[in-house]
């Protein structure tokens, strides 16, 4: 490792430069007064940010995206967390069904699954295409794999089965055991899943475009429309959007390290858990970070 | 496992009901409807294989399919090659630093679709930073570079595939134990020979599995290409979307058939990934 310190350092540095280059260029563009054919802009301004943050259309688009994101995430957690818990603790044999359901969005990307949705919900008993409600319905299926992985991982770490058994032996009812024992313990993992889901929904474009279109402009749709007209306000939108991802990712990282209500005894127990192999840890990290295809 | 009485089990099942209804309404039924449509004639009735025949033989659709496959293959291979080095380099850091690097990588992974297409336009579009630099220094070969061509698209695909490949490959390096390297070194193997005969073969299932995931990811991608070229560059995902929501008269039946073809390819790629990760688990990795 000592000898090899130099090349991992340069590889990682190169990777970071490569990954941040497009963002850096966008950042520069968003502060440039004008940037046509010079190497660097010759004057800088905040005008583009002022312009978008005083644009009612943009503020409305943010409001819509936040509304869809919050409602979708809340509903998803409400529907998914009890289901994941019940399957993991009481019906482990049926878990495979949920694992299969979690793979579906990867085999049927938005551009594919939108077709059936367009046909089903543009007429008939539930004509909701063109409204935010269809997006709220669909986003549950999109974020389901991430929530499943995160919550299932948390349940495994706290050994939910044993905990429920212990709680029941001490006289707690099912519901009490879930609410007072399990829920507080899986809170950090669930919050990580919620933040990740929110950022995925906030950045979703394909479903929003195909199922709703211009009738309900979300931030991504706004960006797409701006991009076609003026470049520099669009770059300000991109940077604002990236700043949001940055904040959400930072929160996720913090939450991932957070262990609520951790007393001394729990700490000892936890340390024993930390003797897990590095590999397991690494896998957990990738899973928690949602290392699976996103809505590109 | 916690035991539960029969009546209690029924109450437990109630917790599953909203999930089952939701996934059926917004995933299973729509997929079923699409499958059905792909076999119906243009009036939405009868049974025909005509759309599949057209989808697999019409020149424009064949071109879309081969374009999609080519970009997916190329971008996945390049991204895996880059990620092999990067993921290994990340494992050489302390835990805290690793977490931060992975967080950054993952964050960039979320930076895709429309914003990414826009950022690349600033970087390499007709008046992009690199385009200008190249023009100033007189590199004509770069000046001829066209972001809106296949090469440009591949470049962007590589960009969003690299973070994903790093995240997927990174855990695999922990299957290679430090002792093996020491043993190999003691026996006189060079670093090259260690990786050639031990390291890479151990990583192989993960590499193939990651390839499946990346390949599927690139095939299903739509937002980036659409934001960059509109419907001009002929990809399968772009073609499907144009058929069902374009300005022209929509053709849901043909669109469904193309979508089923796309989903079938993606499903095989994902099953490859599942199979490979099972294989590497069995090897005790």
From TrEMBL, chain A:
Q: Which CDD domains has this protein been placed in? A: TM_PBP2
Q: Where is this region: Disordered?
A: 261-296
Please note every region of biased composition (Basic and acidic residues).
274-283
Q: What UniProt keywords are attached to this protein's entry?
A: Cell inner membrane, Cell membrane, Membrane, Transmembrane, Transmembrane helix, Transport
- Per UniProt, residues of the ABC transmembrane type-1 domain are 62-252
This protein's source sits in the domain of life called: Bacteria
**InterPro entries named among the record's database cross-references:** MetI-like, MetI-like_sf
Task: Give Gene Ontology CC terms.
Answer: plasma membrane
GO BP terms, alphabetized: transmembrane transport
Bias (Basic residues) occurs at 261-273
Is Cell inner membrane found in the keyword set?
yes
TM spans, by residue? 12-32, 66-91, 103-122, 128-148, 186-212, 232-255
Question: Could you tell me where this protein is found in the cell?
Answer: Cell inner membrane; Cell membrane
Membrane topology of the entry? Multi-pass membrane protein
- UniProt family annotation: Belongs to the binding-protein-dependent transport system permease family.
Name of the protein: Putative spermidine/putrescine transport system permease protein
Species of the source: Paenibacillus methanolicus
Automatic annotation (TrEMBL), chain B:
Location comes to: Cell membrane
What UniProt keywords apply to this chain's record, in alphabetical order? Answer: Cell membrane, Membrane, Transmembrane, Transmembrane helix, Transport
The record, for Gene3D superfamilies, names:
MetI-like
Residues annotated as domain ABC transmembrane type-1? 65-273
Question: Mainly localized where?
Answer: membrane
Q: Which parts pass through the membrane? A: 71-90, 111-134, 154-173, 203-228, 248-272
Q: Name one GO cellular component term.
A: plasma membrane
Regarding the membrane, this protein is recorded as: Multi-pass membrane protein
* GO annotation terms (biological process): transmembrane transport
Q: Which residues form the signal peptide?
A: none
Family from the record? Belongs to the binding-protein-dependent transport system permease family. CysTW subfamily.
Name it. Putative spermidine/putrescine transport system permease protein
Which organism's genome codes for this protein?
Answer: Paenibacillus methanolicus
